[in-house]
Amino acid sequence: QVQLVESGGGLVQAGGSLRLSCAASGRTFSTYVMGWFRQAPGKEREFVSALSRSGDTPYYSDSVKGRFTISRDNAKRTVYLQMNNLKPEDTALYYCAGRIAWAYSTVPSHYDLWGGGAQVTVAS
Fold first, then answer.
1. Which of 29, 31, 74, 84 could make an S-S bridge to 24, C-beta 3.0–4.6 Å?
2. Which tens digits make up the pLDDT trace of 55-95?
3. Phi and psi at residue 108, in whole multiples of 5°?
């Protein structure tokens, strides 16, 4: 069973950058489509980004397109989310997720694995 652990969250000023990492245990990481979601207090969990199994096809929500970059290193069993030009509305608990499928999805219930989350707080 693959387990996911996020790291790299923190407090940053608006306009700053953070990079989240999500490390996976197990040897089947490359068979998972990987995604990032976020959840702000009182709001539903929302899709942020996803990446194909090979890492060559990224997907982004409109709210982060052009500011966030997803990548993965299958040899290190790690997926990353580089977040630039952060805004206060990006403040949330960020989760990485894995899906055993060929296609990505923006629906949280379509993902099979979840990490515990990393808090990102952007101060204005």
1. 29
2. 999 999 999 999 999 999 999 999 999 999 999 999 999 99
3. -55, -40
The string of pLDDT tens digits covering residues 21-35 is 999 998 789 999 999
Give Cα 116 to chain centroid, integer Å: 12
Q: How far apart are CA 70 and CA 20, in angstroms?
A: 9
Amino acid letter for position 45: R
Q: How many residues are present in the chain? A: 124
Beta-bridged to residue 81, according to DSSP, are 20, 70
Secondary structure E strands in the chain: 4-7, 10-13, 18-24, 33-39, 46-51, 58-60, 68-73, 78-83, 92-99, 113-114, 118-123
Between CA 8 and CA 15, with CA 14 as vertex, the angle to 5 degrees is: 85
Q: How far apart are CA 12 and CA 25, in angstroms?
A: 29
Please give the Cα distance from 92 to 120 (Å, whole number).
Answer: 6
Half-sphere exposure of 36 (CA within 13 A, CB side): 33
